[in-house]
Amino acid sequence: MSIFTPIRLAILACFATLSATSAKAQPATEYYGSVRGWDVEAIYVGGQMSGCVMSRAGDYFDFGLIKDQNEWFLGFPSSQFDGSQGFAWVEVGGSGFELSTTVDWGIANGYINQRWVNAIGSGSRMYVEFEGGRYTLSLDGTAAAIGLVTECDANNGVLPHANNTQNYGNNCPEIGSVWSPQSQGWGNSNFTNYSNENVELYWIDFNGSRQLIADLFPGQSTYVRSTAGHLFIARGYSGYCYGGIIEMSPGEGNYNIQ
Questions:
Q1: Which residues have CB under 8 Å from 146's CB, separation 6+?
Q2: CA 62 from centroid of its chain's CA atoms
Q3: Number of Cβ atoms within 10 Å of the Cβ of 141
Q4: Is the pTM of this model over 0.85?
Q5: Backbone angles phi, psi at 7, to 5 degrees
Q6: Interatomic CA distance for residues 117 and 163, integer angstroms
Q7: Are residues 216 and 131 in the same domain?
Q8: Helix (H, G, I), strand (E, B), or coil: what is residue 35?
Q9: Is residue 162 part of a domain?
Q10: E strand or H helix at 150
Q11: Could you list the residue range(s) of the whole structural domain that residue 225 is in?
């Protein structure tokens, strides 16, 4: 069973149900971006932007996450009728919670708090008991996708550099304008995210293209083994590159993203 097709058109239909109109409007989507195997789309209900969704294609039971301003929703494909209410048991990182769900457009949706969103982003697997089945779901790439969903929602579905295709965002280098040199001396660094937003750390390769190294929630760190003189950017979901172009120093070091 694939959640991808129904989630693109329907997983946010619960918001239409809660809107002021009495009729249940069918949501529409607009592609925002892709990262680590996940597609992120802005969702519109009645012509109004109503959050962003992350989903991935596959012929198997899977999940999606939606962010609408300050609220997150977790969704699964359901065989129940629209309007049906139920529960799912969700486990991540050795802890679990009961998710209250309502089915809309074939998707069972339920509210989750930021703690569980962070757990999904930092975990490796999620276990779900739902409608008589128990499923093991990969969380590969979820941190990057959550960051992109957050960016999408904060920017009302419009890429921060949509009008500047030569730039990755504010305080970021022009695409292809800089690249890492073919140097030989080693350089390692511990990168810590001291900003207030999710940050994606990229290496700028020898051709000037960016290669994703790590996805960091606020307060998280990652240790990078690299080469002295190689270039990096730390891009937040707002589209801002913290520190502009970051050059790896020789030897061991620490870099604070702020």
A1: 54, 65, 117, 120, 121, 198, 215
A2: 16
A3: 19
A4: no
A5: -70, -30
A6: 31
A7: no
A8: strand
A9: no
A10: helix 142-154
A11: 186-257
